[in-house]
Amino acid sequence: MWRDLEPIGRDADTRGYRRYAWTGADADCRAWFKAQADSRGLTYELDRNGNQWAWLGDPLAEGAVITGSHLDSVPDGGAFDGPLGVVSSFAALDELRARGTRFTKPVAITNFGDEEGARFGLACVGSRLASGQLTREAAYELRDGDGVSLPQAMEEAGHDPSTIGPDPERLARIGAFVELHVEQGRALDLSGDRVGIASAIWPHGRWRFDFHGEANHAGTTRLVDRRDPMLTYAETVLAARREAELAGAVATFGKISVEPNAVNAIPSLVRGWLDSRAADQATLDTVVSAIERAAKERAERDGVDLRVVRESFTPVIEFEHALRDEMNKILGGSVPVLGTGAGHDAGILSGAIPTAMLFVRNPTGVSHSPAESAAEDDCVAGVIALADVLEGLACR
Ligand code: GLV
Ligand code: MN
Ligand code: MN
After folding, report:
1. 111-125, pLDDT tens digit by residue?
2. Residues with Cβ–ion distance below 5 A, ligand 3
3. Among residues 56, 125, 118, which one has the least CA distance to residue 92?
4. pLDDT tens digits for 261-281?
5. SS3 per-residue string spanning 207-238
6. Which CATH superfamily includes the segment(s) 2-202+316-394?
7. CB of 343 closer than 6 A to ligand 1?
8. Ligand 1: which atom is nearest the Cα of residue 74?
9. For the domain bounded by 205-314, which CATH number is listed?
10. Would you say 280 and 316 are in contact if contact means Cβ atoms under 8 Å apart?
11. Distance 283 CA to ligand 2 centre (A)
12. Of all atoms in ligand 1, which is nearest to the CA of residue 343?
């Protein structure tokens, strides 16, 4: 499976993955998923919201046990964030078939569409649509950097966008969703465990800061006459770091666009995207408000107009204790339980269905980078743990 996935959407220079929603690379990932389902005799289904399903058993029966993750990536992402969950799901099913497991409930593997939000700016679009956290109307407003709308992109990729939206009947048939994911931190490396169970996801969001200044000549404009939004942006980045540090949170400006983007012109517009996360809502609110305040103060000094737009937000997710405890029991009772600052479809769906996550050790903790890694032994341990969990949940 890894051999087939390895070249899809991989940039020859950076060696990172660029698998963005509804692009050619995404289509290749989707074709791979379908081929995996077909080769195992599973019932393949593409839902209205562009999520893929591979069913063992009746897709319309109640109490289904679902596993899987996503195949899209951030810009220059690693091989494991997402695909490890999907590959491990197929491998776990193979393991259970080899064991001769007799399921009493349907089991399905999913590939949720557009988890990273790399193209349209909003993460977990497939699961947000299904659970009603993103309306059809709001989804129709999403645009990529080239101005292509989400429905246009879906259409160009051969998917009918007219029926996207809440899918409560489907979610009501699901008894549990368990997503396996590479750990995006070093907790398991430090504790010496191969596999962990998720406890909670920090509240997190994305804010767009538009700094409007005045374009002018870089050589002839006196410093005192400038309205330079890059200065305001730079000060805002430093404020983000300072406020996050003070509060024990995280805050990152990882994406920027500049107009006119010329070496010899003062920018007319700097657009920076803030990603901020904290253990609790109150802390996150404090951090983001403080960053906005610092940006506004500096904007006044620089003669810059500032507009801040919250583009997405996910509240704190506490995974269901009963399912978490049951999984720990199935796995022998001593699996570490970890929180995370990363967002996941399992978090989005946790309001609608019982969800849980398994993490697989990442020796460096690096993620959202080509350097992301996991050892083969640990990946195998993840597959066995997932197989045990699926067997425990779908055979009772
Ligand atoms: C998704 O990986 C996120 O946490 O941004
Ligand atoms: Mn990710
Ligand atoms: Mn992921």
Report:
1. 999 999 999 999 999
2. 81-82
3. 56
4. 999 999 999 999 999 999 999
5. EEEEEECCCEECCCCCHHHCCCHHHHHHHHHH
6. Zn peptidases (3.40.630.10)
7. yes
8. 2
9. 3.30.70.360
10. yes
11. 23
12. 4
